[in-house]
Amino acid sequence: MLKVENLTLHYGHSQILHGVDLEAATGEVTCVMGTNGVGKTSLIRAISGRHNRSGGSVSLDGETLGVLSPHQLARKGVALVPQGREIFPLLTVRENLETGFSTLPKSDHAVPDEMFELFPVLKEMQNRRGGDLSGGQQQQLAIARALITRPKLLLMDEPTEGIQPNIIQMIGEVIKKLRAEGRMAIVLVEQYFDFAYDLADRFTVLRRGEVIAAGTKAEISREALLESVSV
């Protein structure tokens, strides 16, 4: 589904990513790992169009993508759950969900019942403002908002950050369910090692903007992965 080759990215004169390769298949979770500041979020920003890549290629579902804006990529099936959630605090929960309609034909402008089955708390709080929700509730809203767009590729940047353990467990179950449905490829940026290792089918480890390890769970042992992430 997703193939990234030799991707580079600069912030001004500083090069952040150096020839990064990444693959993510439909029905799988690809986890991007590494310590703080190694370029994980920058990679997600480049794939989602939030920061223009300097070089390299990105293909989605066999189509080579140019350097496109976030809304163009969203219409092609790329959805982002950003670090920090970035929900709209003055909009209600339902209005936040309805922002996902912008990528869909008018005939599909309805919040599917599945969203409330995955995240029951959102049904209870449909008329509450997004800014009034707890951090864990906002994270659920951010994921649901991305899923409303019916993505081919779901990018998730640190979904467990600042979230209480019971919500982390629930988010993990949602990711497993989405993977099992086989309708999308999932790229997960995550520092919580056990959470990531449990979910991932394949791994890409970054250090200083370069890939230092990559492979499937069968190809990389838990011990080798932990060592490469910890350096």
Quick tags:
231 residues, alpha/beta, Rossmann fold, six-stranded mixed β-sheet, globular
Describe this structure in words.
The chain is of the alpha/beta class. It has a single domain (2-84, 151-230), classed as P-loop containing nucleotide triphosphate hydrolases (Rossmann fold, 3-Layer(aba) Sandwich), CATH 3.40.50. Helix content is 34%, strand content 27%. The protein is built from nine helices and ten strands. The chain has helices at residues 40-48, 70-75, 93-98, 113-118, 120-124, 135-148, 165-181, 193-199, 222-230; strands spanning 2-11, 14-24, 29-33, 55-60, 63-65, 78-81, 153-157, 185-189, 202-207, 210-216. Strand 9 and strand 10 (210-216) form a beta hairpin. The protein is globular and about 45 Å long. The protein starts with a strand and ends with a helix. The mean pLDDT is 95.
Described by strand count, sense and barrel closure, the largest sheet is:
6 strands, mixed
Give the averaged pLDDT, no decimals: 95
Overall radius of gyration: 17 Å
Query: How much strand content do the residues show?
Result: 25-35%
Structural class: alpha/beta
Please count the beta strands (DSSP E, at least 2 residues each): 10
